Amino acid sequence: MADLEDVQTVDLMSELLRRLKCSQKPDKRLIFIGPPGSGKGTQSPIVKDEFCLCHLSTGDMLRAAVASKTPLGLKAKEAMDKGALVTDELVVGIIDEAMNKPKCQKGFILDGFPRTVAQAEKLDEMLKKRGTGIDKVLNFAIDDSVLEERITGRWIHPSSGRSYHTKFAPPKTPGVDDITGEPLIQRKDDNAEVLRSRLAAFHTQTEPVIDYYAKKAVLTNIKAEKAPQEVTSEVQKALS
């Protein structure tokens, strides 16, 4: 932990003001669902900052738990070392742990989980034990035919998750993040062949999750084929 005496006063004041602002925000526990390329990655940082939420990516959390050697992380590493899938219970447990962190005090955005109805049920069980539940599920609905152009032109800033597109949302300088000036990367699976395989899995496994939350009356459909700014407006309207 940093010695506060070494932190610049302006930085301390900025953090204090941010926390005061966040204390007035309503709690929100959100799930973003949509096929790859539907725009979840573009909208997540905007919503995260607006409502002072933490962004929970199960892949990132698993890697962090393994690296920090938490009890759940050690169990996950044992499974991965054997080439086995990490169980749904383990993933939900890691989400449960993450919710205790100060940055998740006002709530979270879950992106990429749950992928199946069984996972959604286990997530609901865990939240029920905490006396809470999912407030809103946003379904980023988009036709498969629109996605290929989106996916193959997508570039990511790895450390923040900010995403760009060579055609639809280009960075100010090609190949460079607008804020940090650090290089952007293109994911290895951002190609047409991998996309078709991922879409098939999404339709088979995850579309039933959309029906699951629709029956609970917490689902809002977002027209994700629109321009990013228009999608942002739809998302803000859905969460207001």
UniProtKB/TrEMBL annotation:
One of its GO terms (cellular component) is cytoplasm. The keyword Kinase applies. Keywords: Kinase, Nucleotide-binding, Transferase. It comes from the Eukaryota. It catalyses: AMP + ATP = 2 ADP. Residues 154-189 form the Adenylate kinase active site lid domain. Coiled coil: none annotated. The keyword Transferase applies. Its EC number is 2.7.4.3. One of its GO terms (molecular function) is ATP binding. Catalyzes the reversible transfer of the terminal phosphate group between ATP and AMP. Plays an important role in cellular energy homeostasis and in adenine nucleotide metabolism. PANTHER family: NUCLEOTIDE KINASE. Monomer. This is adenylate kinase.
